[in-house]
Input
Amino acid sequence: MARFTFRLQPVLEHKQRLEDAAQIELSRCWEAQRREEAALNEYAEAEAGAIRELERQRFTGRLDIEALQLGLRYLDILKAQIQRQTQVVQRVQRQTEAKRQELVGYMQERKMLEKLRQRQLGVFTVEQNRLEAREVDELVVMRFGYAQGQGARGKGQEARGKRQRREVRGD
Output
């Protein structure tokens, strides 16, 4: 029986390798995005803590102008860091989305080739079954013909034997 070979198998394997590499790259992007978002959350928590501290100092009754100015400068620095970090998070999110789209493209190409392979395998299987059925039919015809020939010879020999016996007996 013939073996099925998919002519585009090297292309399919290459697409699989590209997809695997894209999955690894996407997981790295997700990890980077997670780290950047965690840093943004830390800045936001630090800002909230600084605001609480300034509110606490304001309501304690004792107003220290230097501490207040220092606290406000710290808040300004935190707001600038939060703004920069927000931009970093947005950039990383765009990169992650681009990698995800790339991965989706590779997956679609691979799946398309796999479907083509399955269709070709189905056509090949049907053709092989048809050829096998034809061979079986030929064998059956040959055996039937051989059996018919053997039966005819056997009957002919049997008839000749009866004739010879009759001749010998004189019938």
About this structure: The helical segments are 9-59, 65-169. The chain has two helices and no strands. The radius of gyration is 44 Å.
